[in-house]
Amino acid sequence: MQMLQNILIWNVMAAIILLGQARPNVKLNLQSSSGLMSDCAANLMRISLDEALAVGNQLEVEATNGTQHIVLTPSLAAQCGYSMESDPWGNTRIYTSLMGCYVDNKDDTTFNVGLKLRMYDQSPSNMVTHDVKQTCSYTRWASREILCDRNYMEVSNHMAKPEAQAEAKGQTQDVKDNSQINTIPDPSGAAHGIWKMTFFTPEPVSMVLKEAEQAGYGAMTTSTRLVMRSPYNTAETYSEDVAGVPMEVFRVSTYYKAPHGLSVVNLAAACPTGGVLFTDDVISWHVPRRVTPVVDGSFKILEMHMGINGQRLDKSQMAARGYTLSTTDFHIVIEIPVGSPDGYYKSHAPDYQYHIIYIVEPMLEVLWRADDTQDDTRYKVLFPITTPLMPRPPHVQDDTVPEARVFSVHLGTFLHDVELMNITFSTGVLTVEESNARGFTVQEHRFPNGSKSFSLQVPFDADVVLTHNPERLVTHYFLPLIFGFVILPEETPFAHPVDVQASLQDVVLPTITGTCDQNQFYISVKFGSHGPNFDAIVGPRQLTPDMAEEYHFQENSTHLSLIVPYTAKDTVFELLTTDSVRARLDVHLLDRINSWMLADLYLACNFPLTATKCYPNGTITALALKVESVPNLEPSWLTLKDQSCKPVFSDDRFAYFSFSADSCGTTRTFFDHYMLYENEISLYYNNNKGAAYTSPIDPEYRQTVSCFYVVNETKTVAFSSKQRSFEPTAEIGSGQLIVQMRLAQDSSYDLFYQAQDYPVVKYLRQPLYFEVQLMESTDPQLELIVENCWATLHEDRMSLPSWDIIVDSCENSEDSYLTIFHPVVSDARVSVPSHIKRFSVKMFTFTQEEEVLKDEIYVHCDAVICDTNSQADGSCRGQCVQPAGFGNSRHQGIKGLKRERRSLDSTLQRQISSGPILILNTRSKL
Fold this sequence. Notes:
By secondary structure, the chain is mainly beta. It has seven helices and 68 strands.
């Protein structure tokens, strides 16, 4: 009794499919009855009706008794020993107890069973009937037979013959008309001689026969047996736990009249309503070995059989199916593999999630004999078992080959009762038929075991596929799906989401081409794989509708074009010559989401332009342009040598001068037969000496205006401007070259002092390792030259006193501890060695009359960025490369000769300084 107390027991009640209420769903072939079969199974008659006949029609069952036809309602079926089981597809089994009502019983050995099956669809007029007649023989009656069917419990007991009763009890019993047909007795009960019944619940409840029948019980006598039948869960039945298994029990004492007095037979039946254990693979059904409600003393098991659907199986059949029948001290155990072919699977969708159950109907038949009376009992249980819901989330197999550019998804497996109804894409819901019509291939695949799966193929370029670009050349394709299913025949819906994705390096970037004529740029853009999905940047501005109209924008499915005048505000002027101007137009295409550079074009062309005109009356006109190399120039600031001679017209790009040859500081020179007039357009600092203004940041601007006249003959001569030392070159983007100076912690130049480390503390004469670097440039044609470096007591780089460390790109020869230059080679941090200069100098202090002025110094440098292709003199020859005969000298204490402002067109100057450096040991350097 205690064996199963700690085991989870699933109480599985037999499913009762009510007679007269089955509603299959598929149309019946009304001309065929080949799906109908009847046979005998020991003390039962069995009818099998397959779905070809039953599905789609309503089924009504009638019992035939001679000329009578009695409709078997659910309550009458349970009272009279009939049951029916249908699966969801209409496969139906009907069981009739040979001791049931309306069975033609011949001496308890031969039984004629007649049933009429009425099947019709929505209209009763479309009805087909099938008469079933089956004769069964059964002679192996035990003294007591207990039958547990899905909707009733039945017990029949052998009645002793009158003579045997007289010998045993001193009284006789006369049973008349033993061959009569079993029928529901009349109200008096005289037909069977049953007088009354006392039910034990366990309190006694007495009823006469009529009252018992009205309560749903069945009672009858045959030629040799007394039969009692009770539906489950009536008022006079009760539940009892036997060896850990819940049982439904009824016990009754039946009084029947006999010729020699009143006889009493005590009857009892107990049927299991649980005792099932489940694993993922095996069903274990436990039945008490000793059914205590029906067994009082000791007994011996004579036979033990298992079966399926009411039919016994032999050992070879059990072995072939993997079934086992065994006993323990307390239980008889039947084990059935989940998925055995004798059962069936069914789909369910609780909470819209796919689950399955497995249903099988085992039978247990046990014959035992009581030791004290030698009476035997046959105990037979038909017990449908349904497993708990087993989640079966569909397996998604992504068979996509990105290079094929088609998503291929396989989803499964499902039972045969699942149908794919629709698929939800990013753009909406499509049925299977609509999906196939759109070119999305949807297929169903069936397997030999009856299961199925589904596959879907969708091209990458379909509108239901979402895309984005995680990298400039890579496209990420994403296909979100929701598969919508229904379970038949209930039409229960459920869904399963699937997300598949793939990436391809398949982006074709747009391309830009351009040409020029005498006045305009012609730009053409060929779209890439993403079409016109980009932002166009023309010069410094994003292309707007207004700009598009101004620049004659045109577009088709593959290209766009622009026509831009060379004087447009989005162009830049690189160089002005005697008869032309070189203008450049920059065009960039940017990704709209990530701002990636998709394509660029830097198109520079020479356009005819006469900047200076010389007229016979001595009038000279000159046009000055704002060139790219002087980005901060305001043309209105330009003047001739005479600063009062300003442009007669100017805007943000041009300045136009008109003056006479004898004004505005114009000079005149005679040679041979010619006379030369010259002036200069420039920025002048307003001082008494008239020195040209120079900016500490921007390069200078100078444009010479020249006119040649033949002596005794006036003639206009072509414009000649002073050539710049270099021709401006195009730069990608805009901005200023940045130079930084850092103090390294040691000679490895791996670690540097940060801003928060200043002031840095050093000992006197301890080396200071400086690095000067051109930042944010990868142009190998640029070289950084450290032109001059000096130390001061104060942060102001122009303060005094000062001491020169590097002079004209070389060490100060007057310093007793010379500056040391360190080589720079490529490594993980240094990609362009020419962009970095390294030098070291020993720590010193400023003194005056042997007294330390201050325990702190600042180091300042002037750096020059050179074009290595330039032939310019000076610092651009390299670090510490001097022309022959050129010396360097500076003065201690006060900064030496003023460093001359460079005028090389090939250079850009930058000024840099380090933070304060403190001296621990204040000893004079001098």
